[in-house]
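Input for the complex:
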Amino acid sequence: QQQVKQSPQSLIVQKGGISIINCAYENTAFDYFPWYQQFPGKGPALLIAIRPDVSEKKEGRFTISFNKSAKQFSLHIMDSQPGDSATYFCAAPRPGKLIFGQGTELSVKP
Amino acid sequence: DGGITQSPKYLFRKEGQNVTLSCEQNLNHDAMYWYRQDPGQGLRLIYYSQIVNDFQKGDIAEGYSVSREKKESFPLTVTSAQKNPTAFYLCASSIGPRGMEKLFFGSGTQLSVL
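Predicted:
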Protein backbone atom coordinates (compact mmCIF):
# COMPACT_ATOMS: atom_id res chain seq x y z
CA GLN A 1 0.00 0.00 0.00
CA GLN A 2 3.08 2.20 -0.43
CA GLN A 3 1.92 5.45 -2.01
CA VAL A 4 5.19 7.34 -1.76
CA LYS A 5 8.31 5.91 -3.43
CA GLN A 6 11.65 7.34 -2.35
CA SER A 7 15.10 6.81 -3.86
CA PRO A 8 17.89 6.09 -3.37
CA GLN A 9 17.74 3.95 -0.23
CA SER A 10 21.26 5.04 0.72
CA LEU A 11 23.61 7.76 -0.47
CA ILE A 12 27.26 8.54 0.17
CA VAL A 13 28.48 12.04 -0.66
CA GLN A 14 31.77 13.79 -0.14
CA LYS A 15 31.85 16.90 2.03
CA GLY A 16 30.97 19.91 -0.09
CA GLY A 17 29.06 17.87 -2.65
CA ILE A 18 25.38 17.93 -3.57
CA SER A 19 23.01 15.33 -2.14
CA ILE A 20 19.86 14.61 -4.15
CA ILE A 21 16.94 12.50 -2.93
CA ASN A 22 13.85 11.85 -5.01
CA CYS A 23 10.23 11.04 -4.24
CA ALA A 24 7.29 10.03 -6.39
CA TYR A 25 3.70 9.93 -5.15
CA GLU A 26 0.59 8.30 -6.56
CA ASN A 27 -2.07 10.60 -5.23
CA THR A 28 -2.48 13.03 -2.41
CA ALA A 29 -5.24 14.69 -0.46
CA PHE A 30 -3.59 18.10 -0.41
CA ASP A 31 -0.79 19.89 -2.18
CA TYR A 32 1.76 19.86 0.61
CA PHE A 33 5.02 17.94 0.56
CA PRO A 34 7.35 17.84 3.57
CA TRP A 35 10.78 16.37 4.17
CA TYR A 36 11.74 15.05 7.60
CA GLN A 37 15.26 14.50 8.95
CA GLN A 38 16.07 11.80 11.50
CA PHE A 39 19.29 11.31 13.45
CA PRO A 40 20.10 7.87 14.94
CA GLY A 41 18.06 7.05 18.03
CA LYS A 42 15.85 10.10 17.63
CA GLY A 43 12.46 10.84 16.16
CA PRO A 44 12.18 12.60 12.79
CA ALA A 45 11.86 16.39 12.67
CA LEU A 46 10.41 18.57 9.93
CA LEU A 47 13.22 19.93 7.75
CA ILE A 48 11.48 21.77 4.92
CA ALA A 49 8.12 21.64 3.13
CA ILE A 50 6.60 22.97 -0.08
CA ARG A 51 3.12 23.88 -1.20
CA PRO A 52 3.14 23.57 -5.00
CA ASP A 53 1.96 27.03 -5.85
CA VAL A 54 5.72 27.32 -6.42
CA SER A 55 8.03 24.84 -8.14
CA GLU A 56 10.94 25.35 -5.78
CA LYS A 57 11.57 26.33 -2.18
CA LYS A 58 14.95 27.08 -0.66
CA GLU A 59 15.94 27.30 2.98
CA GLY A 60 19.66 27.74 3.46
CA ARG A 61 21.45 24.79 1.89
CA PHE A 62 18.23 22.80 1.48
CA THR A 63 16.01 23.08 -1.60
CA ILE A 64 12.81 21.27 -2.58
CA SER A 65 12.01 21.03 -6.29
CA PHE A 66 8.50 20.04 -7.30
CA ASN A 67 7.14 18.67 -10.60
CA LYS A 68 3.38 18.41 -10.31
CA SER A 69 2.76 16.89 -13.73
CA ALA A 70 5.23 14.10 -13.01
CA LYS A 71 4.04 13.74 -9.40
CA GLN A 72 7.62 13.98 -8.21
CA PHE A 73 9.54 16.13 -5.77
CA SER A 74 13.14 16.12 -4.67
CA LEU A 75 15.40 17.37 -1.90
CA HIS A 76 18.75 18.94 -2.77
CA ILE A 77 21.37 19.52 -0.08
CA MET A 78 24.03 21.89 -1.30
CA ASP A 79 27.54 21.96 0.19
CA SER A 80 26.77 18.76 2.13
CA GLN A 81 28.38 18.54 5.57
CA PRO A 82 29.14 15.56 7.85
CA GLY A 83 26.50 16.94 10.22
CA ASP A 84 23.90 16.34 7.49
CA SER A 85 24.45 12.58 7.86
CA ALA A 86 21.01 11.30 8.78
CA THR A 87 17.99 9.51 7.37
CA TYR A 88 15.67 11.63 5.26
CA PHE A 89 11.99 10.93 4.66
CA CYS A 90 9.63 12.48 2.16
CA ALA A 91 5.91 12.39 2.85
CA ALA A 92 2.57 13.05 1.22
CA PRO A 93 -0.68 13.88 3.02
CA ARG A 94 -3.78 11.76 3.02
CA PRO A 95 -6.95 12.76 4.91
CA GLY A 96 -6.01 12.93 8.57
CA LYS A 97 -2.49 11.52 8.21
CA LEU A 98 0.92 11.63 6.54
CA ILE A 99 2.25 8.75 4.46
CA PHE A 100 6.04 8.49 4.45
CA GLY A 101 8.53 7.21 1.91
CA GLN A 102 10.95 4.40 2.68
CA GLY A 103 13.74 6.76 3.79
CA THR A 104 17.22 7.58 2.48
CA GLU A 105 20.25 7.07 4.67
CA LEU A 106 22.71 9.85 3.82
CA SER A 107 26.35 9.64 4.80
CA VAL A 108 28.58 12.66 4.14
CA LYS A 109 32.27 11.77 4.19
CA PRO A 110 34.80 14.34 5.42
CA ASP B 1 9.53 22.32 27.89
CA GLY B 2 6.83 21.29 25.44
CA GLY B 3 7.08 18.06 23.58
CA ILE B 4 6.29 14.38 23.29
CA THR B 5 7.53 11.87 25.82
CA GLN B 6 7.75 8.19 24.95
CA SER B 7 8.56 5.53 27.49
CA PRO B 8 10.29 3.27 27.96
CA LYS B 9 13.20 3.86 25.59
CA TYR B 10 13.87 0.10 25.37
CA LEU B 11 11.36 -2.69 25.92
CA PHE B 12 11.60 -6.45 25.73
CA ARG B 13 8.67 -8.74 25.10
CA LYS B 14 8.37 -12.41 25.88
CA GLU B 15 6.41 -14.82 23.71
CA GLY B 16 2.66 -14.52 24.28
CA GLN B 17 2.98 -11.31 26.24
CA ASN B 18 1.19 -8.02 25.67
CA VAL B 19 3.24 -4.87 26.19
CA THR B 20 2.18 -1.24 26.32
CA LEU B 21 4.17 1.71 25.01
CA SER B 22 3.48 5.07 26.58
CA CYS B 23 3.12 8.37 24.68
CA GLU B 24 2.35 11.68 26.41
CA GLN B 25 2.28 15.16 24.88
CA ASN B 26 1.99 18.58 26.49
CA LEU B 27 1.62 20.52 23.24
CA ASN B 28 -2.19 20.66 23.48
CA HIS B 29 -2.37 18.96 20.08
CA ASP B 30 -5.61 17.35 18.95
CA ALA B 31 -4.13 14.65 16.70
CA MET B 32 -1.78 11.82 17.69
CA TYR B 33 -0.18 9.03 15.68
CA TRP B 34 1.77 5.81 16.07
CA TYR B 35 4.31 4.80 13.44
CA ARG B 36 6.47 1.70 13.20
CA GLN B 37 9.96 1.99 11.72
CA ASP B 38 11.82 -0.97 10.22
CA PRO B 39 15.08 -0.66 8.27
CA GLY B 40 14.40 -0.01 4.58
CA GLN B 41 10.64 0.27 5.06
CA GLY B 42 10.30 3.81 6.25
CA LEU B 43 7.61 4.87 8.68
CA ARG B 44 4.39 2.88 8.54
CA LEU B 45 1.24 4.15 10.24
CA ILE B 46 -0.28 1.86 12.87
CA TYR B 47 -3.09 3.95 14.39
CA TYR B 48 -4.04 7.58 14.56
CA SER B 49 -6.45 9.67 16.57
CA GLN B 50 -7.84 13.04 15.57
CA ILE B 51 -9.80 13.66 18.76
CA VAL B 52 -10.28 12.24 22.23
CA ASN B 53 -12.23 8.96 22.39
CA ASP B 54 -11.83 8.35 18.68
CA PHE B 55 -9.13 6.61 16.64
CA GLN B 56 -8.65 5.00 13.24
CA LYS B 57 -6.59 2.10 11.93
CA GLY B 58 -3.58 2.90 9.84
CA ASP B 59 -1.91 0.66 7.27
CA ILE B 60 -0.59 -2.00 9.68
CA ALA B 61 -3.02 -2.08 12.64
CA GLU B 62 -3.23 -5.88 12.98
CA GLY B 63 -1.80 -7.06 16.30
CA TYR B 64 -1.95 -3.61 17.89
CA SER B 65 -4.49 -1.71 19.96
CA VAL B 66 -4.75 1.87 21.23
CA SER B 67 -6.87 4.08 23.43
CA ARG B 68 -7.39 7.84 23.56
CA GLU B 69 -9.09 8.60 26.85
CA LYS B 70 -7.20 11.84 27.41
CA LYS B 71 -6.05 14.49 24.96
CA GLU B 72 -2.45 14.25 26.11
CA SER B 73 -2.10 10.46 26.12
CA PHE B 74 -2.16 7.84 23.35
CA PRO B 75 -0.79 4.48 24.57
CA LEU B 76 -0.08 1.64 22.15
CA THR B 77 -0.44 -2.01 23.14
CA VAL B 78 1.48 -4.60 21.15
CA THR B 79 -0.50 -7.79 21.57
CA SER B 80 0.62 -11.40 21.33
CA ALA B 81 -1.11 -11.50 17.93
CA GLN B 82 1.67 -9.34 16.51
CA LYS B 83 4.13 -12.04 15.44
CA ASN B 84 6.96 -9.76 14.38
CA PRO B 85 6.96 -6.91 16.91
CA THR B 86 10.67 -6.08 16.86
CA ALA B 87 10.88 -2.50 15.58
CA PHE B 88 11.38 1.12 16.55
CA TYR B 89 8.05 2.68 17.50
CA LEU B 90 7.46 6.40 17.09
CA CYS B 91 4.64 8.49 18.51
CA ALA B 92 3.79 11.84 16.97
CA SER B 93 1.28 14.64 17.36
CA SER B 94 0.02 17.52 15.27
CA ILE B 95 -2.03 20.59 16.04
CA GLY B 96 -4.96 19.50 13.88
CA PRO B 97 -6.41 16.51 12.07
CA ARG B 98 -5.91 17.40 8.45
CA GLY B 99 -2.77 15.33 8.02
CA MET B 100 -0.73 18.16 6.57
CA GLU B 101 0.25 20.01 9.68
CA LYS B 102 3.74 19.68 11.10
CA LEU B 103 4.25 16.42 12.98
CA PHE B 104 6.16 16.48 16.24
CA PHE B 105 7.78 13.14 17.07
CA GLY B 106 8.92 11.59 20.31
CA SER B 107 12.31 9.92 20.67
CA GLY B 108 10.91 6.45 20.13
CA THR B 109 10.76 3.09 21.86
CA GLN B 110 12.86 0.17 20.63
CA LEU B 111 10.91 -3.05 21.15
CA SER B 112 12.67 -6.39 20.97
CA VAL B 113 11.54 -9.97 21.47
CA LEU B 114 13.32 -12.15 24.04
